[in-house]
Amino acid sequence: MSQPPHNRSSAPAPPARPDASMSLLTHVMDHSLDEGYAEASARREADGTAGLPRTLKAKLALAAGLVLAALVVTLGAAQARIAAPVLAKERQELIDRVQRADEHADGLERDIERLRADVASRQREALKQHGGDQGQLVALLSGATEVQGPGLKLVVDDAKGSSSGGGGKPRENAGFSDTGRLRDRDMQKIVNGLWQSGAEAISINGQRLTALSAIRAAGDAILVDNRPLVPPYEVLAVGDKKRLGTAFQDSADGQYLHALQENYGIRATSSPADALRLPAASSLTVRTATAEEPKKGAS
User: Fold this and answer.
1) Which of 206, 187, 214, 228 is nearest to 146 (CA)?
2) Residue 229 belongs to a domain
3) What keywords sit in the KW lines (predicted)?
4) Tens-place pLDDT, residues 37-70
């Protein structure tokens, strides 16, 4: 009985390599070294030039190169060690110079304060001596002497959590950003309102105000006569304590302060005081105005 012919197409095919589709990557992995480099390496090995030098001359040249490199590194390290004390000495000298300059500036500041106090004292004495019966009153009104009496104590502070950054809506007719901080223009309105309400003498954080006083700003700081103030701002006003407080609250500037409290969170408290003491102004320098001599025969 004859067997059926073998069907070749039905034989199972050999399994394909998993990396058959990555022939280029397989070639790179199997031949990581370029053939040209391999040939050059084999040629050097055949000539005896591969690896470390074998002749005495080559060995001496290599040793000389290593010694030279070590010498350069050693000299660099030695120079750095020598220069380190010099740099430290120069740094200390600079620190000492800065400290001496600071001490000298502090001494000059103390001298300025002493001379300023001496000038103010001489001005007050001159007003008392040459002012006649009105000398004490002139010194009082000009801020050249200390004053005491009843009045109003007003403490104004920035809003809680206020920052120096900008943002928000600008205040109406002020041009300042809504940051919850009291501005120099706000302080000007408060002081003007107190004068208008009948205050006879005013001080802010111990700085006596006069007809020559200026309230300005430097960044976020309020300056009174070029001296920076730190919140909270304590405003003392000598006058009729009952009428002064009521008149200020009813004035336009008092209403302005109330609007700052309601709209911007500015904190303000006022209370009548039986006895307030205001210092004399630190300086009364008149550069342009002169006193007019009384005319003869005038009564």
Assistant:
1) 206
2) yes
3) Coiled coil, Membrane, Transmembrane, Transmembrane helix
4) 667 767 766 665 555 666 777 778 888 888 888 8
